[in-house]
Every structure is written in structure tokens, then in C-alpha cells.
Amino acid sequence: MMTFEDRRILRCRDGLALTARRLRAGDAAALQQFDRELSAPSRRWFLPHPYDDATVARALARSEAGEDLTLGLFDGARMVGYFFLWYARRRVPLLGIGLVDGFQGQGLAKPMIRLLIEAAREDGCEAVELTTMLDNDRAFALYQHCGFEHYKDVRNLQGNGEWVVERAMICRLRPGAAPMAEPHQPPV
Ligand SMILES: CC(C)(COP(=O)(O)OP(=O)(O)OC[C@H]1O[C@@H](n2cnc3c(N)ncnc32)[C@H](O)[C@@H]1OP(=O)(O)O)[C@@H](O)C(=O)NCCC(=O)NCCS
Predict the structure, then answer these.
(1) Which residues line ligand 1 (CB under 6 A)?
(2) Would 188 disulfide with which of 30, 58, 112, 183, CB 3.0-4.6 Å?
(3) What is the DSSP letter of 139?
């Protein structure tokens, strides 16, 4: 698993260098600002949890404890991407990814997903799962390109309290790995 001090540089198509690193307790404002920057369509597709102070504090505490691998992608002090493996210590962690609108379509998502998958592989995870909404064609195509397979549909609770049907997808790191036994729910 990435250590707390690790930094990874990811580049936009135009060459701009962004830094990926673990989120810590002091990143609450950056994380809340990230959510505020999302357009309404992007937020409908990516609302992994509420962004009130208490929930954000719980998410950052789990990051510091290593219970989740919770990463931010930063352009200087501005957080432009939020991506994570929830339940990082389980056999099958749960992946999430979102970029603010101005940084979408820049080729960032694949290296971000690759980083998470490699971290899971290094930690001996058997597979990585995610869920994605039925009308999110871009994300669905992207996940298929990254080795995820749609294996069933699930009902999921969104960060705004609404239940929606989503596609559950799995990327197996070991042949024949079984899907996660637990529900696809947020840890916070
Ligand atoms: C989904 C998201 C993470 C993808 O990141 P991105 O950097 O914008 O991804 P890209 O634009 O590089 O596209 C990824 C792939 O999908 C393909 N794609 C783009 N738009 C598409 C569309 N409308 N339909 C199908 N495929 C599409 C691209 O061709 C690309 O594949 P390629 O690199 O082989 O050409 C990002 O757009 C995002 O944060 N969106 C809003 C939040 C969200 O939907 N999060 C995911 C929730 S499950």
C-alpha cells in the first residue's frame, strides 16, 4: 500500500503536472471545495458520501488510519480529483473516482485507476470492485478498458440519501476471485 508520505505525479494531456497523495485530517476544506466545484451532472454521478464536516472528518480519519486508501489529485493546493479504495484491508476493496469538470477528458482517469489497482495488487487483494450508474456511459467504457467486468446490478444508497440502481463491476487480480460478500456501501 502507498505509505503516507508517497507522492505520485500524473500529467494532463497538455503536460500540466498534478500530485496524487493520501488525504489527511487537514484536507477537509480542500475536499469540500472539490465537491462544490463539480457540475450538477458530475455530482449526480459522483456523490460517494455527504460532505458535511462530520462525514468528511470520518473519511479523513479512516484515511489516516489506513482503513481506506483515500487519495486526492492536486493542482497546487487545489484538489481536482478524489479517488479511493474503500475497505483497503479487505480481500476485495471498493473503488471510486471523480474529477472536477475542467480536468475531465485529459487522460487522467486511466493512470488514477491503474494506481489504485496496483496498490490493491501489492497488498494482496484478490479483486477490486466498483459501482456505476446505468447512464454513465463514459465511466462504464473507461472501467471496461481498465479490466472491469459488469457482473450484476445492485441498489445503492447515494450521498444525498437516494437509492439508485447501479452496475456492479469487478476487476479480478487473481483468476476466479469471488466478488465481495459485503454490500457496496460507503464506510462513512
Ligand atoms: C468518469 C471520469 C472519472 C473519467 O475520467 P476522464 O479523465 O474524464 O476520462 P477520459 O475522458 O480520459 O475518458 C476515458 C475513456 O472513456 C471514453 N469516453 C469518453 N467519453 C465517452 C462517452 N460519452 N461514451 C463512451 N466512452 C467515452 C474515452 O474515449 C476514454 O477512453 P480512451 O482513453 O480509450 O479513448 C471523469 O469524467 C469524471 O470524473 N466524471 C464525473 C464523475 C463520474 O462520473 N465519476 C465516476 C462515477 S462511477
Answers:
(1) 42, 45-46, 97-99, 104-109, 132, 136-139, 141-142, 145
(2) 58
(3) H
Going from the Cα of 10 to the center of ligand 1, the distance in angstroms, rounded, reads 16
Q: How far apart are CA 145 and CA 122, in angstroms?
A: 21
Please give the DSSP secondary-structure letter assigned to residue 25: G
- For the full predicted model, state whether its pTM sits above 0.85: yes
Any residues with CB less than 8 A from the CB of 171 and at least 6 apart, and which? 117, 127, 128, 129, 143, 146, 147, 148, 149
Q: Which residues, including other chains, have CB under 8 Å from residue 120's CB and lie 6 or more apart?
A: 85, 88, 93, 128, 173
Asked if 182 and 151 count as a contact pair (C-beta separation under 8 A), the reply is no
Alpha carbon of 105 to ligand 1 centroid (Å) = 6
In the sheet that holds 78-86, the strands lie side by side as 7-11, 17-22, 69-75, 78-86, 94-99, 127-133, 163-172, 149-157
Residue 105 alpha carbon, nearest atom of ligand 1: 11
Three-state DSSP at 158 gives coil
| pLDDT tens, residue by residue, 43-73 | 999 999 999 999 999 999 999 999 999 999 9
Backbone angles phi, psi at 149, to 5 degrees: -120, 135
Q: What is the C-alpha to C-alpha distance for residues 156 and 141, in angstroms, rounded to an integer? A: 20
Report the CATH fold assignment for 7-172: Aminopeptidase (3.40.630)
